[in-house]
Amino acid sequence: MKNYRLAFFFFLFLLAIVHIAVGFVQSEPPTEIDLKGKIGVAGTKSLDDPIPIDASTDGQSIFINFLTALGDVTISIYNVNGDLVYQSNEQITSVQQLLVSITNLSSGSYTLVFTNAGGGYVYGIFIK
């Protein structure tokens, strides 16, 4: 009887491992969010292309890479009706990465917006 229990638990353990492994294999790479606009650094003129921010999403999170110091940056997300659904103020003093969870957002189209004290406005549309 103990051998059957041990075999059963071993089978469940293997099944869980296979399920986790399949989940990793099936996960899609993040989709790049096409950003448009200009962002300024305080005390300088607006930076021209390329925009010193990269953003992508996997449908659960937004991955943001700041490629230079931008000072105080406000990150906002608006739904298709123009309602603000997320906002965060960040101090970007160097190259850094941020992760924004979007698991609480409903499926649909959203606009990601970056603004800063240097007069910058960068935006991109993504679908969750």
UniProtKB/TrEMBL annotation:
Show the InterPro entries listed in the entry.
DUF3244 (IPR021638), Secre_tail (IPR026444)
Recorded hits in NCBIfam families, A to Z, give: Por_Secre_tail
Q: What is this protein called?
A: Por secretion system C-terminal sorting domain-containing protein
Source organism of this protein record: Parabacteroides chartae
